[in-house]
Amino acid sequence: MLSCFTALIFYLFLPHSFNKKNVEIFESLKKKYLVRIHYFLIPPRFNHLRKWTWGTATIYFKLYIPFVLPHLKRVLYLDGDTLVYKDLSELFNLDFNDNYALGYPFHNVQMMDKWGKKLVNYINGGVILFNLEKIIKNNKDSELFDFLLKNNGRLYFLEQDALNLVFYNHTGLLPLKYGIYLFGNITTYRNVVKKSLRVELNETELIEALDNPGVVHFAGCFPKIWEKKSKYKTAFGDQSVCFKAHDD
Hints:
Oligomer: single chain
Structural class: alpha/beta
């Protein structure tokens, strides 16, 4: 368990094209918080794989975690467009219940049927608690690489699809407050989102997550929060968590 005297340890996976002067920005965190930061330059192994429109292979970097940090039993992965509101120590005491990873539910589960695997649950790739011990023991780290290379161009949500297919029905749910970006409000969930899921969510927990989130993931929200634009929009409406959190 983390205590108030324990440093949080961040592992930053950086592309070779990363401007090394920007490391100073991360280093400045040490002056304000009790943190340790380790930097890893990732080789351009994924450059030939399909990418999103912004044209970088960084979405695949999370797949290096088991190789770079094999001495750890669990790692929390966060996308760059996340905002943390609450103490995360709870996540490091959760039971994996035989799952390779825990995340928050995403609406892509039915699209996976075409692979001949009917997933019960499909987790988003933006906030993931990895069970490294189980992944490494069962060689799922190597299987992920092989699967991506074999199916390059066939995966719509890229590494996110690969994770859910390779971890076939061994993905569990985090407490909903740790990522619930696509649910604008409880009405949206009941009328729209619920139809796209195969897991039943506790509505009391969902309402609390919407009102008092622990982590907000700004996926589906444009422009990104670090971009200087006067007009902020989100595909999920002005009642969505990411819209309400934008000013923060």
